[in-house]
Each structure stands twice: as structure tokens, then as C-alpha cells.
């Protein structure tokens, strides 16, 4: 039997559906409860899709995962899959350690050192906070004067984990792109959010006393999101927003299998294998010579975005013209590993 923490709208919707359809024994548990260890004593493993914007999960999800692994429980996501989730600084160290082709990245924990670097750096650069999704905490820095402004703010009053203005701009962008009733209604909701702090803004601490920059790689009108789950890699191309360098959050997708360089797919499998991640979404951009460069990685993503994928590759780059079902792939691999572990 496995344990599932259910959060409506998360991966757990499909996990539960899969268990019901295939007669897989499971129980629903509450990972936020003080007795969670007792709740899963009779289970072989736990599946919990926790989100980057959940301040409560950020307090203890990694610690709970590691603790369960210590007593022989299987967990999704496991420690190797999630410890660097929504942590671009952690990913910098990890990817540099294994020699992955990360876009050159720079982190500083001292204002004077950061300002000295800003004087000598070439521009543009990309400024990021260590957390956040959908490009919400990403800024293009055109010169050293702007870089120094951001550095001084980082070591001064700091940055909010989410920006109400940026969230409102995103809603405007989605309306211009979709011109739908739902996107128009989202604008009206966004107006209210300009005056009412989001839960993320209210509950997360300020981001301060560090700065993180990446080199700007020019002439990229898209990035490729490569997702590896087990022996499957499926891909989407995300085009940049209008008059913007950011692709994440644009919602402008292409799926044609011929778009994706085999070098990138091989890189995705190699990276996931080295890191031993159960699920790995890799954002890739390209140099002028076509070399793939990693921007960041994540275990979680909006699964709905992949419903239009035409199929997936295996590690031998063989193509399978089959439906792409990320949550089903996750639970199938998880059940196999639980069974395999138990049989030992």
C-alpha cells in the first residue's frame, strides 16, 4: 500500500484516479499533521506533490522526505529529486559540480564583492531571485548602474518573494495573448491583488543578503523544456513573450518532434541519470553555435502543458508515438520501485 497526500489540482488527482482504476491499494494522508509518521507506518511509500508557493511545505517537506527515507520508505519526490526545487542558487552549485552546461551564473553574499563584480562584468546580465516560477522574479539588466541598484536593494530592504505588479503584468499579457473572457476576468481579479498581498507575499520572508545573476544568451526567441521521467523524455518549445526575452510563463508552445535537437534530449537523459531524479524538467537555451545551455531545473511543472505532446523518446532516442501522461508515468515508476524494493 502507498500513501498519497491529496491536494486538489495537483498531480495527486491523477495518482488517485490511477490507483482506483488499477486496484492499487492506497490511503490518503495529511502530511501537515503532527502524526504523519504514524499515518504511513503501514505504507511502503508516500507520494506528495508539494508546491514552490506553499510556505508551509517549504518549512518541512524536505526534512520529512529525508526522515522517511531513513526508515526505508520510498517517497515521491525523493530527496535527490527535490532538495534543490525552486532554489536556483542550490542548482548552480549542483550543476557546476557535475560539469553540466549551465548558463554561466554568479552568486554573491557580500555587497562590496558584488559591486566590484558589477563594475567589471559585461552586459546585459539576467538578475534572478533564488525562487519563483513563470519568470516572475527575473529581470534583464542592461548596464552596471542597474546592476548596482539591484545589488544595493538585495543587501538593503530586499525583495518580496512575489511582486503584485509583476503578477498583474502577467495577467495583462495573458489577456493580450488569449483575448478570452476568462483572461479578462483574471485582470479584474488582478486589480484587487494590487492592493491585497498574495499568500506568498504575506508568508514568505524577504529575499535579501545575496545576489544571483546569469549571463544573457542572445538571439533566443524560445527555450526548450525537456521533461524526463524514467526512460521517457517529452518536450515542448516555449516561445518568448512579445517584446520580452522570457519564455517561461508565455503559454506559447510548439510540440513538433522535429524541433528538438537530439543533443538536447541526450543531455536531459544524462543529467537526470547523474542526479538520480525521479522527474526532471530542464529548461534549455542555445548558443549561436547551437550548443544547449541549461537555465534551471525542476521536479514539478504544469502537467496540462504536455497533453499536446506527440509522444516521447527513450534513452536510446527511439521515438514512441504514444500519449504523454506525466502523472501516470510518475506513479507507474513509483509503484515499480516500491515493489522492487520490497522484493529485495
Descriptive account of the structure:
α1 (12-22) links the parallel β1 and β2. The two termini are 17 Å apart. With 344 residues, the protein is of the alpha+beta class. The protein has a five-stranded antiparallel β-sheet. The protein has a four-stranded parallel β-sheet with strand order 2-1-3-4, with helices on both faces. It has a four-stranded antiparallel β-sheet with strand order 5-8-6-7, with helices on both faces. It has helices spanning 12-22, 36-39, 55-70, 79-82, 88-97, 111-120, 144-154, 164-178, 181-193, 199-203, 262-275, 326-343, and strands at 2-5, 26-29, 45-47, 74-76, 105-108, 125-128, 138-141, 211-215, 222-229, 232-239, 253-254, 279-286, 292-298, 312-313, 319-320. α6 packs antiparallel against α7 (144-154) and α8 (164-178) runs antiparallel to α9.
Beta-strand share of residues: 15-25%
Outline type: globular
Distance between the termini: 17 Å
Low-confidence sequence ranges: none
Average of the residue pLDDT scores: 89
**Series of H and E elements:** EHEHEHEHHEHEEHHHHEEEEHEEEEH
Largest sheet: 5 strands, antiparallel
Number of helices: 12
Give the proportion of residues in helices: 25-40%
What structural class do you assign from the helix and strand content?
Answer: alpha+beta
Round the Cα radius of gyration to an integer and report it: 21 Å
Q: Please, what is the oligomeric state?
A: single chain
Instruction: Report strand order across the widest sheet.
Output: 11-10-9-12-13
